[in-house]
Here is the input.
Amino acid sequence: MRLTADFFNNHVCQVARDLLGKRLVFGKYEGIITETEGYRGADDEASHAYRFTKRSAIMFGPSGRSYVYLIYGMYHCLNIVTEEKDSPSAVLIRGLMLPDIYLSGPGKICRHLGITMKENGIDLLSNHDFYVTEGIVPKEIITTPRIGITKAKDKLWRFLMSLE
DNA sequence: CGCGCGATTGTA
DNA sequence: ACAATCGCGCGT
Here is the structure.
């Protein structure tokens, strides 16, 4: 069953945690989300939405849309917008378990699935081949600081589920 | 209009 | 430890 606005219209950390074990569908690909990070505007210096910019504008919009950006000039990262409109936030997808391979890291996920800027701003609540559905219930969930950031290192907004 | 740097990854 | 690689975003 596809996840709806009710699922994404909650605090980004709640959604990030709840996304663990859910099934991401992108065209012919289908995998279990195993690792996420939450990012938020205003109170989160590490977030692209700490200030409103052209790039982060999507994070200020309604939830359930994809937010894709290019990092280090060569890797794309996939996020899903959360919370109500004008409450900027998004969940970064960092781990995905496919039937044949485990993708660990946001850049690897987008490279393997073929996700680029063309996939930015897509409504996952209505799109026919890009969405999230129910999956499995995580056995154990671990919380840690986020990876690769220089600011707001104290926030425990990274979530991982045990594999198996 | 110019320039430094990043929510990464693979290689040394 | 560090290079690859380029659009964003902030300062001028």
Observations:
- Chain A has a mean pLDDT of 96.
- DSSP finds three helices and nine strands in chain A.
- The helical segments of chain A are 5-8, 12-18, 106-113.
